[in-house]
Amino acid sequence: VTATDDLSTVIFWQDMKVANQGLAALLPDLDKEGQVLGAYAKIKIEQGKDADLVNYNRDLGLEATSYTTLNDNQLSQGISTASQLKTANSAELVKGLPHDVQNSVSSSIQRTAATPADESGSDDAKEAD
User: Fold this and answer.
1) Which residues fall within 8 angstroms of residue 1, CB to CB, at 6 or more apart?
2) Which of 38, 54, 88, 90 is 20 to 30 A from residue 81's alpha carbon, by CA?
3) What's the predicted TM-score (pTM) here?
4) Block mean pLDDT (10 aa), the chain, length 129
């Protein structure tokens, strides 16, 4: 497990969590057929948001600073689910983003707001870790 203020990662090998100091010992075994090393990352700013909102945000393709700003703005506006974007104030959500990014994100939010509920995904989405 590795952690910073913004990100924590967990490494798995054969469905077992691997301590950082044990990773080096596993590396020679990874050349063997069927050996898989997996990594799972938790991005702090995504915690508490539903999976649909996390996927929506990631699909915007923003640079890290813009991604963080957008997520901070969502948090300050109480947005934790994708369905809440339908009633969100897009101007508040894009504050602090570069101008060209503001336009594209704002347009995306407005398109999301115009999408009927049955086409935009489930409101009962699983919360992101």
Assistant:
1) 8, 9, 10, 11, 17, 19, 20
2) 38
3) 0.67
4) 66 76 67 69 87 95 94 96 94 96 94 70 46
